[in-house]
Amino acid sequence: MWLRDSANQILSYLPLLEPSNSPESIAALFRGIINLHSRYIKITPYCHAFQPPPESNVSIGTNYAYHRNVVKPPYDAKKTYDCKWELDSLASFLQISSEYYNLTGDMGPFTKYKWAETVGVILDSVEAMRTATYTPEDATIHQFLIPSNMMFARYLEAASSIMALIDTQEAMNLNTRMRLMALEIRAGIQKYGIVHHPLFGPVFAYEVDGYNSQNLMDDANVPSLLSAAMIGYVNPRDEVYLNTRLFALSQENPYWMHGHVYRGIGGPHVGPGKAWPLAGIVRAMTSQDATGDEAREEIKAILNTTDGLGLVHEGINVWDAKDWSRHW
Hints:
Blueprint: H1 3-11, H2 26-43, E1 49-50, H3 65-68, E2 80-82, H4 87-104, H5 108-112, H6 115-129, E3 144-145, H7 146-163, H8 169-192, E4 194-197, E5 201-204, E6 207-208, E7 214-215, H9 239-248, E8 256-258, E9 263-265, E10 274-275, H10 277-285, H11 293-303, E11 315-317, E12 320-325
Antiparallel strand pairs: 1-2, 3-6, 4-5, 6-7, 8-9, 10-11, 11-12
């Protein structure tokens, strides 16, 4: 189970989520995911994908990367499937926690499953890493990955509201740490993560190192700079965000792919010439076009890239609709 991917899968059920004690309910599904993620993160917060829990009776998988990658300290392949430090994976745990509480008002999962202890493990690991990380799919160039830090700060703030309701000294201390860390990340992004682009003015960089080096790009995967408004880090009408959005959706973005079949943001994971419909969906969801034309045109373009399968692919060759990755 990938932390971020499984979180995103269950988040699609938010419109159906309501308070319920039934083990057959959507609420029970959320509680189960929160509990399972909590258990996984305690195994190791530095890894992002885990083997099935023993009580599931599902056979563990074999990841051949285990023998190719050198991870220190080494991880137990019987418990952990793959190991990359992904800040957004930890942010996903905070996201599903806060979304569940906001819609149900149920504090059960946060007192029953040692949720506060898991948050403490997350904070300790982030402080230890400070904050070199992988993108959702690929290694970074510079140490400070802006989109993942945006997401982490946003959901630290949201989840701190849950922590504030747990009546223990440990929770009080963790709540303070969560809020201070979120403020520190926001201050870092404000100071080091905004750079001047000659065409678009002040924009968010994708990566920085804190020593005036930056990587100006955007990647299709979420979190991305394009998704900063969608995840609630910034107001969708924020000037720097709007400038960044224009940059990301232009040829100034080195991963903007444009052909006669499709055009959109891609990334290093699938290489040149392939755009991800996922970024097109984010574009539609973050559009401020009052006419709705931008969102409609984007959805129409995505529907024309399914190669007759009616499914959203991972990546599309912008010159050949039959050349795509992952049929789902």
